[in-house]
């Protein structure tokens, strides 16, 4: 039988971002035309909706990320789209489902063929750009608030880079769970936005931090710190922690190493550990993943979990988009709108 949809897709091309060598993303990234993808057994074709430009994507293009793909490679560790073609073995996934792509897939493209059993189906009520940004930062925030210290409602945690997407997800999730947060930032103008997210305390990352935290938390014990900066910033938040507390390092935005005074280990028995969402995905079963996504979908549907977007670009603007994503002092993420 003549299949008009198939015939149309065969003659179609898609735009795909790729790099052939590591280097400055604005110099090595280009956008090429490729044929519309064909799905193999067990795969479906996804028409991509959106994909953010995260720090790890920039690091991967630069060749500074621990996972090095075979080159040429398409960047993009997360993104979302809509299933437009299925084969006979798509399992639970159906045409028109909104889906979140597997980790490290290379999402900066207009369409892809992908194994159906690696997709996470997201509720249609979640906006496409928000669905595209759930897999890295909100999942990381959720896991870090659950996997290291058994926090109860009313307990405090502290974090630096609190206005990052990961930091704001931690504020929103923490607030929903009844945890109280001390949020350390390097510029005061973000305070109001973080308070709207549910931040209890917002403080500048400076030498007054310890006294200010003691006063504003009324010396309540803080047993969990989330560190995305390293260097002096990590040390400043470690200094406010209660004995036996845990600092989870998940980012290194300052590129400075963590230097821990001996006394923090000997006299306070602080624990220093790390989190990498890639490893979590490697280890988590399908049901564990689903159990982590479920409350995030619920929060996103209710408007309680939202990643701010500073600007959207089409793939044609990939060079400008990566330059923008590498700028500090943003108000939100830079995102590819892959439908434009
Ligand atoms: N380990 C994991 O599994 C995992 C998962 C998710 C995220 N991460 C990491 O978490 C970090 C945040 O990611 P994101 O996507 O949430 O970032 P983002 O939204 O792009 O925000 C970047 C943040 O870093 C701050 N920043 C940039 N340079 C800095 C410096 N030199 N010193 C202090 N702060 C600096 C920015 O502050 P300004 O706004 O003031 O410029 C902003 O708060 C990144 O390192 C990322 O790789 C790791």
Would you kindly provide a written description of the structure presented here, covering whatever features stand out?
It is built from 13 helices and 15 strands. The two termini are 32 Å apart. The chain has two domains: 4-133 and 307-337, Medium-chain alcohol dehydrogenases, catalytic domain (Quinone Oxidoreductase, Chain A, domain 1); 139-278, Rossmann fold, CATH 3.40.50. With 340 residues, it is α/β, with parallel strands linked by helices. 43% of the residues are buried. Helices cover 31% and strands 24% of the residues. Bound molecules: NADP nicotinamide-adenine-dinucleotide phosphate (NAP). NADP nicotinamide-adenine-dinucleotide phosphate binds next to helix 3, helix 5 and helix 6. NADP nicotinamide-adenine-dinucleotide phosphate is lined by residues 54-56, 136-137, 140, 161, 163-166, 186-187, 228-229, 250-251, 253-254, 275-277, 328-330, 333.
